[in-house]
Amino acid sequence: GSITLVSGIVAQEPIAQGVNATTVNAGLEGFVRAAACELPRGIRINLISPTVLSESLAAYGDFFPGFASVPAAAVAQAYRRSIEGVQTG
C-alpha cells in the first residue's frame, strides 16, 4: 500500500503571516519520516511538498516573493511517482 500526504514549501521556507501553515507542514514532514520507520513492511508513506504553483501565481504570488513556481503538471508527476514508485519516507 501507499500513503501520500501533501505539505508545502513553507515547512522549509517560512513566509510572512504563515506561522500556522509552517507549523502544520513541518509537523507533517516529521510525521512522515517517523511513520516510514514504523509502518509494516509493504506500506509506504510519502509527502509531496511543492512550492507555489504557476497556475496560482495571480492569487498567491504576493505571499511568495522570490519563490520559483512550478507547473501543476510537475506536481502531478510527483504524486504519480509517490503512488506508483518504491520510495518511502
Structure report:
The chain is of the alpha+beta class and 89 residues long. The protein has one domain (2-84): NAD(P)-binding Rossmann-like Domain (Rossmann fold), CATH 3.40.50. Helices cover 42% and strands 11% of the residues. The protein contains 3 helices and 2 strands; from the N terminus they run βαβαα. Strands 1-2 form a two-stranded parallel sheet. The radius of gyration is 14 Å and the shape is flat. The mean pLDDT is 95.
Question: What does the secondary structure layout of this molecule look like, with pairings?
Answer:
Blueprint: E1 2-6, H1 19-38, E2 44-48, H2 57-60, H3 72-84
Parallel strand pairs: 1-2
Protein name: SDR family oxidoreductase
InterPro entries: NAD(P)-bd_dom_sf, SDR_fam
Q: How much helix, percentage-wise, in residues?
A: 40-55%
- Strand arrangement within the widest β-sheet reads 1-2
The total count of helices amounts to 3
Taken in chain order, the helices and strands follow as EHEHH
The oligomeric state is: single chain
The proportion of strand residues reads 5-15%
- CATH H level: which superfamily? NAD(P)-binding Rossmann-like Domain
CATH architecture: 3-Layer(aba) Sandwich
Shape: flat
Strand tally: 2
Instruction: State the CATH topology.
Output: Rossmann fold
The stretches of 5 or more residues where confidence is low (pLDDT under 50) are none
What's the main sheet like?
2 strands, parallel
Overall structural domain count: 1
> Structural class of the helix and strand makeup?
alpha+beta
**Average pLDDT metric:** 95
Pfam families: adh_short_C2
Protein name: SDR family oxidoreductase
